[in-house]
Amino acid sequence: MPALGPMAPAQRCPLCRQTFFCGRGHVYSRKHQRTLKAALERLLPQVEAARKAVRAAQVERYVPEHERRCWCLCCGCEVRKHLSHGNLTVLHGGLLEHLASPEHKKATNRFWWENKAEFQMKEKFLISPQDYARFKKSMVKGLDNYEEKEDEVIKEMAAQIREVEHSRQELVRSVLEPQPVPDPEEGSSALGSWKGTNSLVASTSQQPSYLDLPPAPELDWMETGQPLTFIGHQETPGIGNIHSGATPPWMVQDEEYSSVNQQIGPSYEEFLKEKEKQKLKKLPPDRVGANFDHSSSTSIGWLPSFGRVWNNGRRWQSRHQFKSEAAARNKQSHKKSQSFPDTFSSQQTHT
Amino acid sequence: MSFLLPKLTSKKEVDQAIQSTAEKVLVLRFGRDEDPVCLQLDDILSKTSSDLSKMAAIYLVDVDRTPVYTHYFDISYIPSTVFFFNGQHMKVDYGSPDHTKFVGSFKTKQDFIDLIEVIYRGAMRGKLIVQSPIDPKNIPKYDLLYQD
């Protein structure tokens, strides 16, 4: 077979992830350049984001998302994107550090030479050491700002808690003092502050920046500006109530019996009730419910299942089978009981 | 809303309602007709009363007219709803401190319908206390202020 095109030992291009036999010609092919462009386009946004961070470094609280790594095309290694220490993270810190390092510079140069990429693009992927020094300065500033913000938030939360505690104490004081009419506003504002404390206490563990979100929609439905009207304590120590187990008012026999009730025979209401009961009696006796007559006899087909095990059809199919089997059974027993007198009679006729 | 539902104005009428409602859940709403939260609750009650007519009978009771009942059920916040079945007071565990009555209004009609159904089924099975099917965050929160 004649050789096709230039022959060279098999070489693998890591960018296209393919083996080729063209030697150094592969790098100039259209496919390779396309792949190269796509790869650089993927890498470029990350580098740009890191470059922006050089001016204004952002410091945030640590979140597991900050463990993300980025693949550096030129060095062929994974690099931590963000720099974390303790529970703080500097965004894009890791990537910047890597981009500014001398090994990365050497690797980038080699990459550009080997893959014959555009020369102007190379600069975009490098960070000079001066830039890196600038980044370090802004990082320090960012850290200071973050600490200040944290302190502020903590102070705010402390003030809120103090306020709620204060209103709570006021309420207790007002309830203890003998007042002629307990203010409905006081009662309702207490309700509002209870809710406020509960939701605050629940969310102190969360991030301070998210503090506003969970309590707001909860308060929306519950309060809507209309807390429950308080109609006073229902306490008269002499008379019991439901919690103390007193007789319910409807069980207490009333003495005010009017002369109407002294008539003999059922009254009109009782007549109506009898009519209702008659209606109930008309219900099918076999139906299950509150008034199911347990003494009524039910047929063999009353239970929900007919004893079939491997059935996967509708109930009427198993019922149909059950009925035909029952009929066959009945016929057999009928035949048996009938066959005796039959033979008797035949014998008699014979003799 | 409240003119669509029957009202009970005296202790005797309430007694009669409790003793004569048979095979249906009896819902007594204790409150005042003008109170805003009562209006909300009455709205839900009247809109669902026809759908629940076979399962429940709903009545409105004014707390000022029946002090005996207001005192017996220890009604401090209005509206409070008490449930009966065949003359038996039904308790429901809503996740709130008081199981003997439902304090406040329901969030949706479906919540009320679900609650009535659970009470009905529990009562038919002979239970005296049932577990409320309503999501605890839809139950209005209130504080029981204890007297010292």
UniProtKB/TrEMBL annotation, chain A:
Residues 338-351 have a biased composition (Polar residues). The keyword Coiled coil applies. It comes from the Eukaryota. The keyword Coiled coil applies. Residues 176-196, 320-351 are annotated as: Disordered. Residues 143-174 form a coiled coil. Keywords: Coiled coil. PANTHER family: CENTROSOMAL AT-AC SPLICING FACTOR, COILED-COIL DOMAIN-CONTAINING PROTEIN 84. This is Centrosomal AT-AC splicing factor isoform X2. It comes from Mustela putorius furo (European domestic ferret). The gene is CENATAC.
Automatic annotation (TrEMBL), chain B:
SMART domains: DIM1. One of its GO terms (biological process) is mRNA splicing, via spliceosome. It is found in: Nucleus. GO terms for cellular component: spliceosomal complex; U4/U6 x U5 tri-snRNP complex; U5 snRNP. Pfam families: DIM1 (PF02966). Keywords: Cell cycle, mRNA processing, mRNA splicing, Nucleus. Essential role in pre-mRNA splicing. Required in cell cycle progression for S/G(2) transition. Homodimer. Interacts with the U5-102 kDa protein subunit of the spliceosome. Belongs to the DIM1 family. This is Thioredoxin-like protein 4B. It comes from Mustela putorius furo.
